[in-house]
Design a protein that fits this description.
alpha/beta; Nucleotidyltransferase, domain 5; 5-stranded mixed sheet; 7 helices; 18% strand; globular
């Protein structure tokens, strides 16, 4: 199956899911070629915020990184500027769920950077739900559920780039099944 545009698969690790108060801690994406869905490029950055010491301790523990990595990370505006430089707006955004896209939009809003990505997205949760329903499997289509179905292994939890590559494998499997 060929797509009209390359697919930019996004994942964000954040402090939580409340768009008004929670912040992105890591933003990652893999760019999939529109013709063969192979990885063409990638982006990965942790995001430094002015958290309290106890929150910083919790962040580095959750993400499995050192404090030095966190403290040397760029701020949100710099991360999004680098993201914009790396990936033009002429892609289709994709993610496991709409929350990641909403977190990205909110991050752009917080920094005052114009968000110009197309509002049409590919949501893997919905594709997975349709696929599992077609297989008569009554499970919620999380990345873990779909990965187990396709016999895929995730190398690490709470790493946005690892998640993007894992989701890319799931996406390729789903598309192969829909195309056949």
């Amino acid at each position: 199956m060929r797509f009209a545009r390359d697919i930019l698969l996004l994942d964000i690790e954040a402090t939580g899911i409340n768009l008004e108060k929670d912040l992105p801690l890591q933003i990652a994406a893999v760019l999939l070629d529109k013709d063969n869905l192979l990885e063409k490029d990638w982006f990965n950055s942790y995001v430094r915020h002015s958290f309290s010491q106890s929150t910083n301790d919790q962040v580095v523990q959750t993400l499995g990184i050192t404090k030095e990595v966190l403290f040397k990370s760029p701020g949100l505006k710099d991360v999004l500027s680098a993201f914009n430089s790396k990936f033009p707006y002429n892609v289709i955004l994709a993610s496991q769920n709409i929350l990641n896209i909403d977190l990205l939009r909110q991050a752009y809003k917080r920094t005052g950077i114009s968000y110009e990505y197309d509002y049409h997205i590919i949501e893997l949760w919905t594709l997975g739900y349709l696929f599992l329903s077609r297989q008569n499997i009554k499970k919620i289509p999380t990345a873990t559920t779909l990965g187990q179905y396709f016999k895929l292994e995730r190398k690490k939890d709470h790493d946005a780039l690892v998640n993007c590559r894992y989701l890319a494998e799931i996406f390729r499997k789903l598309i192969q099944n829909y195309a056949s």
